[in-house]
């Protein structure tokens, strides 16, 4: 019951936010026509495979439970080549260049909207993916902002960009200074960064990860297209540049291993870092924060490239991934919420009750819903970010 309420809240909040930001896509805040979209046509007798039993997947690092790919290979006889990329920018550049060689890619919806519009992704073979029926209609409704008819995208996972800390080390480095009310202060306010640089501050290495949270921190729209806002974000960032030790989009081991005590990172990765530190015998407390002003939600979605050579194998894998037990495994092992309603029921109680994984409705209301970036905005973000990183 509680989960149902949360799903409704997610849908209402995201759809309401859709209505107030940037160009409207189809009918804003109108869930009715899309709610039924994920329902798949009657299932075929069994999976359909391509003649060549190969599947090439391109996904984010630290996102697939151990053994899941091998289980699919064993069951299907398909050889999976699984590569990883670290930023939406890197995936986008590959897609734009074409001939990626990949069948399934996993863009964030902030980039996927433009990729669909640009013809870089092909519609899903929904009749070969009966497990689409397991998806939460509220989550699928939120995706219509990027994919108006739920034709191209299905969530791998979702989560949020936030501040991750090694609380033990941060408290020590702050000396007697109290923790700020707003956790973003730890990475953006010189009063704190000047102290925390001694134990290591790490930022994700991507303009479209850092600039939106910086904009949000200074009270601007995280998805602003206004050059004046980028300028202001750049000025704020310049003040903390000298205190940032690392730029990395795979910082799990940096946090777990002690190179960084505070990071702008992804919720699940911070949870993985916490688990890894414990496995390594550390007693330090590592936590994903829920900043008082909110964190930035992302949805990472499976999609099939326009020139995929193995589109049937891709559909078979997507259907396999959408089995409730596999969706639950992803949440249990990778620390990200699944958009798979049938899977949520199988998530371990300690994961389901972790408020930094399955966020409560109260906090969800504070979060910044995903939008999308225009080409101009991405370019402006790139310029602001590069100048920041170079320390200019
Ligand atoms: C990697 C998770 C990627 C989340 N572990 C950001 N899209």
From TrEMBL:
Required for the activity of the bacterial periplasmic transport system of putrescine. The keyword Ribosomal protein does not apply. Keywords: Periplasm, Signal, Transport. This is Putrescine-binding periplasmic protein. One of its GO terms (biological process) is polyamine transport. InterPro entries: SBP, Sperm_putr-bd. PROSITE patterns: PROKAR_LIPOPROTEIN. Coiled coil: none annotated. Its main location: periplasm. Belongs to the bacterial solute-binding protein PotD/PotF family. Pfam families: SBP_bac_8. It is found in: Periplasm. GO terms for cellular component: periplasmic space. GO terms for molecular function: polyamine binding.
């Amino acid at each position: 019951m509680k989960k149902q309420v949360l799903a409704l809240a997610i849908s209402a909040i995201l759809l309401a936010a859709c209505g107030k930001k940037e160009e409207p896509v189809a009918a804003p805040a109108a869930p009715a026509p899309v709610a039924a979209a994920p329902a798949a046509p009657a299932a075929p007798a069994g999976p359909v495979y391509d003649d060549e039993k190969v599947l090439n997947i391109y996904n984010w690092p630290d996102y697939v439970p151990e053994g899941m790919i091998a289980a699919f290979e064993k069951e299907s006889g398909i050889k999976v080549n699984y590569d990883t990329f670290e930023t939406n920018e890197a995936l986008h550049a590959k897609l734009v260049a074409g001939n990626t060689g990949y069948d399934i890619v996993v863009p964030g919806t902030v980039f996927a909207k433009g990729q669909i519009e640009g013809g870089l992704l092909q519609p899903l073979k929904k009749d070969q993916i009966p497990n689409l029926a397991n998806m939460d209609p509220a989550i699928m409704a939120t995706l219509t902002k990027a994919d108006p008819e739920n034709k191209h995208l299905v969530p791998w996972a979702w989560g949020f960009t936030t501040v991750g800390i090694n609380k033990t080390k941060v408290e020590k480095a702050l000396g007697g200074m109290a923790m700020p009310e707003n956790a973003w202060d730890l990475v953006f306010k010189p009063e704190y960064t000047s102290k925390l640089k001694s134990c290591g501050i790490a930022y994700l290495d991507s303009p479209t990860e850092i600039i939106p949270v910086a904009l949000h921190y200074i009270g601007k729209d995280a998805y602003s297209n206004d050059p004046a806002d980028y300028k202001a974000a750049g000025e704020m960032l310049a003040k903390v540049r000298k205190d940032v030790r690392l730029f990395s989009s795979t910082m799990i081991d940096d946090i777990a291993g002690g190179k960084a005590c505070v990071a702008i990172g992804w919720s699940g990765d911070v949870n993985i870092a916490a688990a890894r530190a414990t496995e390594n015998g550390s007693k330090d407390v590592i936590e994903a924060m829920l900043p008082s002003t909110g964190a930035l939600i992302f949805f990472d979605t499976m999609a099939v490239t326009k020139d995929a050579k193995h589109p049937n194998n891709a559909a078979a894998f997507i259907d396999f991934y959408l089995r409730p037990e596999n969706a639950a495994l992803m949440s249990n092992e990778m620390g990200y919420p699944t958009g798979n309603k049938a899977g949520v029921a199988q998530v371990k109680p300690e994961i389901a009750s972790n408020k930094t994984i399955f966020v409560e409705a109260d906090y969800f209301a504070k979060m910044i819903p995903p939008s999308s970036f225009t080409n101009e905005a991405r370019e402006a973000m790139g310029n602001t970010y590069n100048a920041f990183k170079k320390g200019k």
